[in-house]
Amino acid sequence: MNKRIEMITALLDEKKAFDITHIDLSKTPYLVEDVIIATTLASKHALSLLDALKTPLSL
User: Which Pfam families match (predicted)?
Assistant: First the structure.
């Protein structure tokens, strides 16, 4: 697992997301190489996770 994926999953875990799953698609013909799926408690929780991820990922 690369450093960026580790950083994202650690941040999601720190912010109380659960059922965090990483799917490696690098050997498939999809447009993306990795997918991270996490369950949140509510829509506000999902938005706060998004905000927490924006800065470290430079989005």
Answer: RsfS
Query: How is domain 3-57 classified at the CATH fold level?
Result: Beta Polymerase; domain 2 (3.30.460)
Query: Which stretches within the chain are classed as H helix?
Result: 3-14, 43-57
Give per-residue pLDDT as tens, 8-50.
Answer: 999 999 999 999 999 999 999 989 999 999 999 999 999 999 9
Q: Name the residue with tokens 């470290």.
A: 56
Give the pTM: 0.82
Where helices occur in 15-42 by DSSP H, the ranges are none
Give yes or no for a contact between 39 and 49, defined as CB atoms under 8 angstroms apart.
Answer: no
